[in-house]
Write a structure and sequence with these properties.
With 428 residues, the protein is mainly alpha-helical. Among the domains are: 142 residues; 55 residues, no CATH class; 35 residues, no CATH class. The chain is globular.
């Protein structure tokens, strides 16, 4: 009996299902000898997907307090897509009549109307989304380097672009299927066309909300930076009333846009459900209805993956890195390159004097204060060099020779000298 996995299944079960399906597809493809370029690329993508899924499995098992429930639908679609594509290969191979190792009809394989390259890009979208979710969880639980943070931003940007292209492709296929279903159902043709127009209008409204929200997000840091620059001046005047009103107004705009987008999302989902139901009834072929069901699942998944990327981008923009570079400390200095608020500290090319002390990383405010107090009470031993005005030329020459051989050295107290002399006599 075929394994039945639904979105209501637990996260561990869905990770296992996706991993099992992708591994089985990999083994199926590898069992054939003839591998054109696009098939070799698919094999590479399946290997990369396997690595990410195993990393997710380990993280889910080891980190119980991290919420990965948003990945349920992408994992389900990933597993189903790999399972369906494996069955498609087996079906085409049996029709070709050749031996299993000599299958050459790769170009004839079509999944949801697309070939192998499009299928590989779909898997890449799942892989990127899982990768971003893992990186986002790691970002909230531990620190990251500056280079790692920049690489993460690039990964989010690239994944978002690819997912937007994927969603546009699915939208075009849905539009074509809806139009064909409307033409086959004369009684409800007008109603379906109206729903299609409403769907397009709702998507346009969502795009406008996203553009306005992004524009406000770009303005807010500029306003905060301007205030921060003026507040460093001891003689600066308090923030103007207009500045406060502007800041509060922008925050209200963001809240309003967020609420509007949620209402539009709910409305769009309702329209899609109605369109899907009517289209499946209008389509004469059961295969067409099944293909439409897959398109609906992929449409929902692509939108969810985009939402995961959007939230990850919001989190990464909140990360602040304190950068310290090319700093030289003097003698007898106590330096801190630390954060008491969890912000990332990046220190590079930091040098200290001969007896300087340095602390870095994540420290609590209480620890920093305690260390400072402890070192302020510590008296450094004076170096052995006599005061310049008291040293004779012979003293200075001797000190120079000693320093070159053994370092600066330290001057002993009379008591220390007596102890050293006594110890030397005992050894004799």
């Amino acid at each position: 009996m075929a394994e039945i996995i639904g979105i209501s299944s637990g996260l561990v079960a869905l990770v296992g299902f996706a991993l099992k399906s992708s591994t089985l597809l990999y083994d199926t493809v590898q069992s054939y000898r003839s591998h054109p370029k696009n098939v070799r690329d698919l094999v590479d993508e399946l290997e990369a997907l396997d690595v990410v899924l195993r990393a997710l499995s380990e993280t889910v098992e080891q980190t119980k307090d991290t919420d990965f429930t948003a990945l349920k639908l992408p994992l389900l679609r990933c597993g189903n897509a790999c399972k369906d594509f494996g069955e498609l290969i087996a079906k085409c191979s049996s029709r070709s009549g050749g031996s299993k190792t000599s299958f050459r009809d790769w170009a004839k394989l079509k999944y949801m109307g697309d070939g192998i390259d499009e299928f590989r890009r779909m898997l890449a979208g799942y892989k990127s989304t899982i990768n971003i979710a893992l990186a986002d969880a790691n970002l909230r639980q531990s620190s990251v380097t500056t280079e790692g943070l920049e690489a993460y931003k690039v990964m989010i940007k690239d994944a978002t672009t690819d997912l937007e292209d994927r969603l546009q492709s699915i939208d075009e296929k849905l539009e074509s299927t809806f139009s064909r279903a409307a033409s086959e159902s004369d009684e409800e043709a007008i109603q379906m066309r109206q729903m299609q127009e409403e769907r397009s209008s709702t998507q346009q409204g969502l795009a406008i909300c996203a553009q306005l929200s992004a524009h406000i997000s770009r303005i807010q840091p500029l306003l905060a930076a301007d205030h921060s620059q003026r507040s460093t001046d001891a003689h600066a005047i308090p923030p103007a009333v207009a500045e406060r009103i502007t800041r509060e107004g922008l925050e209200e705009c963001q809240d309003t846009l967020s609420n509007t987008a949620k209402r539009l999302e709910k409305h769009l989902q309702s329209i899609m459900d109605r369109l899907m139901a009517k289209s499946k009834m209008a389509l004469s072929s059961s295969q067409d209805a099944a293909d439409l069901g897959r398109l609906q699942e992929e449409w929902d998944t692509a939108r969810l993956c985009l939402d995961i990327c959007s939230k990850a981008n919001e989190n990464v923009t909140k990360v602040t890195i304190n950068v310290f570079e090319n700093i030289k400390g003097d003698e007898d200095i106590l330096q801190f390159f630390a954060s008491a608020t969890g912000k990332i500290v990046h220190a590079k090319n930091i040098t200290l004097g001969q007896r300087g002390v340095q602390f870095g990383g994540q420290l609590s405010d209480a620890s920093i204060q305690q260390i400072s107090q402890d070192f302020s009470r510590t008296a450094y031993i004076a170096p052995m060099d006599p005061a310049p005005e008291m040293a004779t030329p012979a003293d200075r020459a001797g000190i120079s020779v000693f320093r070159d051989r053994y370092g600066p050295g330290f001057k002993l107290s009379p008591q220390d000298g007596a102890l050293s002399s006594s110890a030397g006599q005992q050894e004799q």
